[in-house]
Amino acid sequence: MYGKMEALLEYKKKIIEIVIENRFIPIAATVLFFILMIVSCNLEKSIDVDLPSYESELVVECYLEPGKPYRLFLSESQAYFDEINENPLIENALVTISHQGVTDTLPYGTYFNTEFNKIYNYQSNKIVPENYYEDFSLYIKDDRGREITGTTQIIEAIEIDSLVLQFNNTDTAALVLTYFIDPPGEDNWYRRHLHSGLTIDGGVLDQDFITDDKIETENDQFVFGSAFDYTFGDTIYSTLYHIDEPYFDFLQSTFDAIGANGNPFATPAQIKSTVTGGLGVFTGLSYDRDTLIIQ
User: Fold this and answer.
1) Which of 80, 104, 206, 269 could tie 257 with a disulfide, CB 3.0–4.6 Å?
2) Three-state SS string across the chain, please?
């Protein structure tokens, strides 16, 4: 192959000399294009990559929201190039959540959360208590013997101080500023959602990002802004989630994975689960929400 390449390159050199000597400038680009096509075609080489076998893992998503039932979504992962499994749900697994020495079993079924248009396949009638000091423990075992365990706490929500509108110079579009106080003397992590629409579940998610509190601010006051995307008659929902570090790391890893998916130049991202024995998240969900209607 290397001898053929050298011959082609030498041939290209001679043609360029002829083109320049005879001043065939109009056809020079065309000649060079075909030469480069020939060279590139002769340098192509197929590479076969042997991918390691992949074993599916349990995937869990469970958020403990005070005042709402224990509910959980359980499925299993698939290899990237496998055919899509039309039913990846895990049925009839043993799912329990323990708190204060009491273990509650979540039966399998189909459960809807109409507030956020979500579906779960495990739920109990027991309500998540408003307890910010003691652990909640998760245990899952399916009929293949695969197990997931996890431990978390619910942390208290941080209240939003105010929502402030700022219009542009022509008073035709507005941005929204969300102010809150970051508790001093401790490490905190936040997730910010900004929706717009008639209802939050049927509206548009305009912002979704996470941050820690390492930014220096005056008097511990934080502010999250938006673009000039809003006008008269719009309804805006600003939600501030107070999250723990494991959930922050999980979200960061999922955002990185989404960004790397389909990008051949991106570094593959490893999901940092908050559970052991599988993939996914088991965490408390604490938030404050404020609504603003632009009159």
Assistant:
1) 269
2) CHHHHHHHHHHHHHHHHHHHHHCCHHHHHHHHHHHHHHHHHHHCCCCCCCCCCCCCCEEEEEEECCCCEEEEEEEECCCCCCCCCCCCECCCCEEEEEECCEEEECCEEEEEECCCCEEEEEEEEEECCCCCCCCEEEEEECCCCCEEEEEECCCCCCCEEEEEEEECCCCCCEEEEEEEECCCCCCCEEEEEEEECCCCCCCEEEEEEEEECCCCCHHHEEEECCCCCECCCCEEEEEEEEECHHHHHHHHHHHHHHHHCCCCCCCCCCCCCCCECCEEEEEECEEEEEEEECC
